[in-house]
């Protein structure tokens, strides 16, 4: 029972005791008053009868005595009247049974005992005693009067009790409303939500409690913000180029390796390798500040082109070298993109020179094209070769000849579209194990068969699916396959929704409707890429809330690499995160990686969020992560993806 209800119950109990005692005292006084009235009435009757009947009693006139007594007795106020001579002879006696009228309930008669007293008055005539008269009142009158009084008192008591209850309840709840908000604060704090009470009560004790709670909430929130800030600073120093804000060489190569060598899901791609020539000469001619401004402008234009091209990896490899990995574009689109980039850099360079209007920026582009099976190291090497060829020949951009863009295979597009439309996909699954080696869930990956009827990697068909605008349909097919699987299996399955499905409100409604009919919904896990989360945080919050209501676990995939940081965890409160493989791949070899991953795990645990690690391939990786208190791990160490069914 809540404190408010306890206080209300205690006050009402005291009031009921006081009211009950008061009711008893008043009732007892009423009973005494009625008894006294009966006594007085009986005594008056005996006196009046004695005065009137004195001569008749002396004459022993039974007829007159009987007539007079009957006349008085018939009024109904008496239970017995006896007329006795001086020597004890009963001259006349009349009595009736003490029966109470039906207007008074029998239980009330049994509960309340009223015994009217018997009053006696001596009768004298001619200065001598002639007899005595005994009169006893009838209790019926007293019971009727007492019952009427009790009914009125009971009704008044009930009405007053109800009114007092409502009034006390309202007053207590109003006075203790700040405590209710303190309870909500404490509950929110346990859920890692930080809310303060804007209104401080005037009651001294409650005011102190509210102020103390607000102060604690602010301090805890500040601790989390400081922790997040410190980890952000660590990430920037370890993985971000200080001058441009782009990922540094270490982070860029890790992300390239993770997407191209590990996941193999980027698809046909293009790598742009940009180099600023004569960097040392620029420093001497323009000064370090202007040169740094030019480097920042190069990074900014690269970032703008990357954003317009869709999913990408961008970074600064050395002081003069930048790379940008984008999905394969048609040759004319790529040509316009490069022309726009070089033209913007030329304008910035002329502004720095403040002179010649024909000078070109000292930048060169090496371009290498890759397939879904291209390796990061080979793609970088080809792009460097193309860049060196551009520098040798004096051209501004050069494509690597052996990796020219392939022509679009329309028959392959038709094959992929048919497979998605007919739901001709199959799922592979890779387990996620906890720290003791027990399975947590399986993450599924969609696959289709190629024209030779052999399974193909995601990189071979995902880019085509995206070009055809079929990503949402692919996700629908995956959900339908997983729901069908869960009807006959007891394992837990996690699916990773695409960015297109995340932004499709119709897909949200369809997904929630399908899940509402699923039994044991805790076995259906939804994961969303961190980039997709940050691009549509409000929409993801709504989806997360709906999934939480249904009881479906929710996780953030590829966690820890987005430049916007991870402050969104406080708002989103996912059930778990999966630390990106580019961060965990060197955790057993690099102290910086180890410390950063440890910090990510600490932040997650401070919000009661489980932390899993991806791309675990070596036992040394797993051992190190277990020392860092990771909650689960996924990777080839635990097994390659295999057919779900």
UniProtKB/TrEMBL annotation:
User: Under the GO molecular function aspect, what terms does this record hold?
Assistant: cyclic-guanylate-specific phosphodiesterase activity
Q: Which GO terms describe its biological process?
A: signal transduction
By its UniProt entry, which Gene3D superfamilies does this protein fall under? 3.30.110.200, 3.30.70.270, EAL domain (3.20.20.450), LapD/MoxY periplasmic domain (6.20.270.20)
Domain called HAMP: residue spans: 173-225
> Would the keyword Transmembrane turn up in this protein's UniProt record?
yes
Key words, A-Z: Membrane, Transmembrane, Transmembrane helix
Which residue ranges run through the membrane? 6-26, 152-176
GGDEF domain boundaries: 267-403
Q: Where is the EAL domain?
A: 409-645
Q: Which GO terms describe its cellular component?
A: membrane
Q: Which Pfam families does the UniProt entry name for this protein?
A: EAL, GGDEF, HAMP, LapD_MoxY_N
- Note the PANTHER family from the entry: CYCLIC DI-GMP PHOSPHODIESTERASE PDEB, CYCLIC DI-GMP PHOSPHODIESTERASE PDEF
Q: What is this protein called?
A: GGDEF domain-containing protein
